[in-house]
Write a structure and sequence with these properties.
There is one protein chain. By secondary structure, this protein is of the alpha+beta class. It has 6 helices and 10 strands, in the order αβββββαβββααααββ. The chain is 25% helix and 21% strand.
């Protein structure tokens, strides 16, 4: 599932392509919004919150979308063959066309068209957005308090809970825990510096947002964009120990967890000598 960095990157691209431009054609292929008329409205901006996107219009409405596991927003030049092909795809759920760009919502997992004033209610249950500009000052204390509400929850599971902090997914959960050398099933109450862990995830995601392509490491070469995520059985990039895979949560919503057993030992074990 796309994580906070991907949503922020997507919001930036949509914002640059659409903001200040009139919608000359639109189609929402979603049961609750199929009859909506958006032709003639002007886009006033697109923003992300955790794993959610909000595109605002000057008529007081907002389009809310969520990518779920496979969704994406793509940009095609208006009038191009690629835009025409996209319009014919059975997987497209939204089309917003301006004189220059056609934005294509492909395999979207959620779509709502609501009054802009009501948009915040769609995410009222979520924790603070880890990538929000004011997160360090205002969001972090709230996120920490919510994480600590269930002290015995394994930290990997807690970080994936969007009601505590919005934006973490399996990639940045695993990469943040690896960076802080924390065993993924350590209870929340046993994390010595929970704030540093959460802020590590924020730093990694922001670096990805600023990169030419998504990356949790700062490297963009294929196979080098993560330290442990998706690397089961491959050598840890710090100590060469084979990376392992476990699970966080319970069926049917369990999620994969990747970790290095040497760099992230169980709390009762003594860390082995490090090899850089």
């Amino acid at each position: 599932m796309p994580e906070g960095d991907i949503l922020r990157r997507t919001a930036h691209r949509l914002d640059e392509a659409l903001t200040g431009r009139p919608v000359v054609a639109a189609e929402l292929r979603w049961p609750d919004a199929a009859g909506a008329h958006l032709d003639g409205v002007t886009v006033t901006g697109t923003e992300s919150y955790g794993k959610h996107l909000f595109t605002h219009f000057d008529d007081g409405r907002t389009l809310h979308t969520h990518l779920r596991m496979e969704g994406s927003w793509r940009l095609e030049r208006t009038g191009s063959a690629a835009a025409a092909r996209a319009a014919r795809s059975p997987w497209v759920r939204a089309l917003l066309t301006t004189p220059s760009w056609t934005t294509v919502g492909h395999r979207l997992g959620m779509l709502d068209l609501v009054a802009t004033a009501q948009a915040p209610t769609l995410i009222a249950h979520l924790g603070p957005d880890v990538l929000a500009d004011d997160f360090p000052a205002r969001g972090l204390p709230v996120a920490l308090a919510r994480l600590r509400e269930h002290p015995r929850t394994p930290i990997a599971e807690a970080l994936l809970d969007q009601t505590r902090a919005a934006g973490f997914g399996t990639i940045y959960m695993a990469e943040s825990l690896f960076a802080r050398r924390i065993w993924p099933w350590t209870p929340v109450e046993e994390i010595d510096d929970l704030a540093s862990l959460v802020m590590t995830g924020r730093v990694l995601m922001l670096r990805s947002v600023d990169s030419d392509s998504p990356t949790a490491t700062g490297e963009t070469v294929r196979g080098a964009t993560t330290r442990v995520h998706g690397r089961r059985g491959r050598p840890c990039r710090r100590c060469a120990t084979p990376v392992r895979e476990g699970t966080a949560g319970r069926p049917p919503t369990e999620r994969p967890v990747f970790w290095c057993p040497r760099c992230q030992p169980e709390p009762e074990q003594q860390p082995a000598a490090e090899t850089e």
